[in-house]
Design a protein that fits this description.
heterodimer; A: 400 residues; mainly alpha; ABC transporter involved in vitamin B12 uptake, BtuC; two-stranded antiparallel ribbon; 5% strand; B: 253 residues; alpha/beta; Rossmann fold; four-stranded antiparallel β-sheet; 9 helices; 39% helix; 24% strand
Chain lengths: 400, 253
């Protein structure tokens, strides 16, 4: 189906099912129960998971396949957001012109930055992309203030023209009249499930993005990208210029980032320069590596895990902690709360850092490898080959 | 006139004259060996031929066209392939994928990328790759991870990757360096098979005289960046200048 073999079709169907069921999966605890605070099934968070999933899927096409580590992809995310908001201001509050322009602008921008940065490889490439992105960030704050509205950020105002919208058009981003912010709440047995237009819009686009990435992984082009990572020297002596391939991968991943940026603006029609900062670029690197670089599902898992945990951990402040440890004697409680509060609330980044270190050290293949090992424990062990040296490993499959 | 004409190549690295006025003519469909003591400039010359190094002066004509100033991938597209001293293969890919990449390169070049087809649907490419693999007796290893191959198999794979492009000139940089005796003999057999079964010109750099004398039809001896003599293997063996510069012990036994 859709140009995929049986295994990949199944894989895609599972991904579609999981994505569509997110409002249930992320809302496992009933309202009012003590665990309700670990629910993540609200539209804003779910949409963020989908959006950053798209961002990481695109980043993985560059980093996972070619091995070129860009530290500047947030610049394209920012360009996407600004473009989308400009479309909202000038043309229409319909989401389609906005995300189309976001993808095109990010693509053009990444073509320029990629063309310059890809003259070098390895650490020099990373530094060049980092420098370019920081430059974009600073410019958005200063020279380009007329375009970006500087520190305040770009937003939609009632006075904006919206050339295509009629007098009765909605005042909020919409899909041909259907408001992005519309939600349907379903209450059943103490559970509240929220089905939000914005989330499902992002989810459908994320599935399309995932499908495109799957096709790229399975294509001759994807194979060439893996060849770039494996041995550029052999590639040039085989009559192939690696540059067009890496540039194409760079632009594709830039367009994914622009799409993600556009969708962020769709969910909340506001664009600020901080979206382009290097910390945002670093975040997508962490997502991809945490989930498993070079795997199809890894980046999505990484994005989901980080966004979910960020949300949960940020909510746990000292009051909540005192609540939890109220059963301890006061003096011990204070110490425990003091230590734990360094890792929660505003200290969430510390937890993320520790988590990242543990994964990189013990699970270099990321969460995907963790999952494989976990499920591998339940499988029947195949009989040990009698002579390991003469049963060399088969190449790792790039799925899963 | 030979298929490869090297004229007056000079190359200096700082104070070292790596190549001094090198002239070389390689006749089409022959095996031409370059020998010489360490530091004679053999590898430097090879790097000039494939576009990795630019010479200070001189000219290199392949089939009447200049190769100087072209990038390695452009020179490869002219019909020159290179086998490296340590096999350069795509270690992260499977053997069959390693073979498919040169097939794609030959068919499509660098700019037709096929992002929306699947590798499995490229029947013609897979067939070419498999035919070449069976030609070098590696078909049963088609799905293995290339990095896990033995040294001899890596070399075999690299040669197959070069040959599947049907190059007119194959450059080999010490193809048996660091190999065990058995692997060396296999490589000699493979090279003989290649030489006798297709129209191909080979330039081979080698230290192992056994390899050189069982394959080469012409031999050029380089010393200190300059060609000393060029002749047939039999004449080279007895040449006093060569014995003095290099062969000494080998020629005696």
């Amino acid at each position: 189906m859709l140009g995929l073999n049986k295994k990949d079709t199944m894989f895609l169907l599972i991904v579609i099912a999981l994505t569509m069921a997110t409002p249930f999966l992320m809302q496992p605890f009933s309202e009012g129960s003590a665990l309700a605070q670990f629910n993540g099934g609200y539209p804003d968070l779910m949409a963020k998971v989908a959006i950053f999933g798209i961002f990481a899927i695109g980043f993985n096409i560059l980093f996972g396949l070619t091995g070129y580590l860009s530290f500047g992809h947030a610049a394209f995310l920012g360009v996407g957001s600004y473009s989308a908001v400009w479309m909202f201001k000038i043309l229409s509050l319909n989401v389609f012109p906005a995300i189309i322009l976001a993808v095109i602008m990010a693509g053009l921008f990444s073509l320029v930055i990629g063309y310059i940065s890809l003259r070098r490889s390895g650490i020099y490439f990373s530094i060049l992309t980092l420098a370019m992105a920081e430059m974009s960030f600073r410019l958005a704050y200063s020279v380009f203030t007329p375009l970006t509205n500087g520190e305040t950020g770009l937003q939609v105002r009632p006075s904006d023209v919206q050339l295509l919208d009629g007098p009765n058009a909605p005042e909020y981003p919409n899909i041909f009249g259907l408001l992005i912010s519309d939600s349907y709440k379903w209450e059943v047995a103490g559970h509240v499930f929220t089905f939000n237009v914005g989330f499902y819009f992002c989810a459908v686009i994320a599935i399309i993005a995932f499908y495109i990435s799957l096709r790229i992984f399975r294509s001759p082009f994807g194979m060439m990208l893996r060849a770039v990572k494996s041995n550029q020297n052999r590639m040039s002596y085989t009559g192939l210029n690696p540059r067009p391939y890496t540039l194409a991968a760079f632009v594709i991943s830039g367009m994914y980032a622009g799409l993600a940026g556009g969708l962020l603006a769709v969910m909340d029609p506001l664009a600020g320069a901080e979206r382009m900062q290097w910390t945002a670029s670093g975040e997508v690197v962490i997502m991809t590596i945490l989930g498993g670089a070079g795997t199809l599902l890894g980046p999505v898992l990484g994005a989901g895990a980080i966004k979910y945990l960020e949300n949960i951990f940020s909510k746990i402040n000292e009051t909540v902690l005192h609540d939890w440890f109220a059963f301890l004697p006061d003096s011990i409680e204070d110490v425990v709360v003091f230590i734990l509060s360094r890792f929660t609330g505003h200290g969430w980044a510390l937890t993320l850092g520790l988590m990242f270190m543990l994964v990189v050290t013990f699970l270099p293949g990321g969460l995907v490898e963790g999952g494989k090992r976990f499920f591998g424990m339940f499988k029947r062990k195949p009989k040990e080959p009698d002579d390991a040296e003469h049963h060399p490993e088969t190449p790792p499959h790039v799925a899963e | 006139m030979g298929i490869l004409e090297v004229k007056g190549i000079n190359k200096r690295f700082g104070g070292l004259q790596a190549l001094g006025d090198v002239n070389l003519s390689v006749v089409e469909n022959t095996v031409h060996a370059l020998i010489g003591p360490n530091g004679a400039g053999k590898s430097t010359l090879l790097n000039v031929l494939v576009g990795k190094l630019a010479p200070d002066s001189g000219s290199v004509l392949f089939d009447g066209k200049s190769v100087l100033g072209r990038k390695p991938h452009e020179i490869n597209q002219m019909g020159i392939s290179r086998v490296f001293q340590t096999p350069e293969i795509f270690g992260d890919l499977s053997v069959i994928e390693n073979m498919m990449i040169p097939c794609f390169a030959r068919r499509d070049g660098s700019y037709r990328m096929h992002a929306f087809e699947t590798v499995g649907s490229e029947k013609g490419i897979i067939e070419d790759a498999e035919t070449m693999l069976s030609d070098v007796n590696m078909l049963e290893k088609r799905d293995m991870h290339a990095a896990s191959l033995s040294r001899g198999d890596k070399r075999r794979l690299e040669m197959a990757m070069c040959l599947v492009q049907q190059p007119r000139l194959l450059l080999l940089d010490e193809p048996t360096a660091g190999m065990a005796r058995a692997d060396t003999n296999n490589t000699i057999e493979l090279l003989k098979h290649i030489r006798d079964s297709r129209d191909i010109t080979m330039v081979i750099i080698e230290h192992d005289m056994n390899v050189v004398f069982s394959l080469a039809e012409r031999i050029t001896v380089l010393a200190q960046g300059t060609p000393l003599v060029e002749d047939t293997p039999d004449n080279i063996k007895g040449h006093p200048k060569v014995q003095e510069a290099y062969l000494g012990e080998t020629a005696v036994d």
